[in-house]
Amino acid sequence: MPDHAVQDVVARPHALLAGLRLRQWIKNLLVVTAPLAAGVLDQRDVVLRTLLAFVCFCACASAVYLLNDVVDAEADRRHPVKRFRPVASGALRPATALTTAAVLAVAALSASWALGTGGLAVVLASYLAASAWYCLQAKHIAVVELAVVASGFVLRAAAGGIAAGLPISRWFLIVASFGSLLVASGKRYSELVGAPPDDAPDLDLDAPAARVTRPVLAAYTPQYLRFVWTMSAAVCATAYCLWAFEVAETAGGTPWAALSVAPFVVALLRYALDVDHGRAQEPERIVLTDRVLQALALAWVVTFAVGAVHA
Questions:
Q1: CB 220: neighbour CB atoms within 10 A?
Q2: Beta-carbon neighbour count of residue 198 at 10 Å?
Q3: Residue 48, CB half-sphere, CA atoms under 13 Å: how many?
Q4: pLDDT tens digits, residue range 235-291?
């Protein structure tokens, strides 16, 4: 790192940590889904490779957040909430943010390649390339930006399986793809209708304020985004049902995978309720605060994992 970047890291560690957005690392738990679906998380080698995928994705995601904060700094300063981000507020210099982003990205790619998971390195490189394009250009192209955001979730979901050398089910990819599109379009819908976060009741986060840092919202209507996330939820639920019953037929005995359809669909409906109320600007916030959703997720994990193990 350049001397000024090192000085910033030492003098302003809190600003740098804020820029890394550690809370958003919860999204990277998606790397566990493929090994979980394959029922092989009881194998030590798979666990270690999945953990490597998680750590590498955390590093890459934080690199992307830092890049995005630098690119959006001017617009963020005009937003009632985003103006407190470290780069926009002046707590972290752009050069320091970019240098840290480069170090994190190179470290993640090098670690994944050095430890013999070339497939994971390709996934990470694809994620970084797509995210960089999003930060610099794609975020301004309606619909395309939804696809790019969704692709980030899909790559996370596939990364664990690729790192562990597992075959990826076609049903898994369909569920992951449309589930990701649901999250992306639900986020845009919530930003457009402008419901404020629960911890910021005194801020006026109306639609015009949201458009300050996301001009592409002007290209959407609530009706269009509702169509996208409704369609995505429907395809995701249908594909999951077909996948779960296929796994149940293979396993025989108690159809645990088929039973997992109930908590999965109810969890999907619960998340859709949050989207409908405009509370899905930050999906990780919902995951961390919605106790009902957490209970449903736990029920799904248990029932599907048991079904996958017996398949």
A1: 19
A2: 9
A3: 6
A4: 999 999 998 888 888 766 678 889 999 999 999 999 999 999 999 988 888 988 999
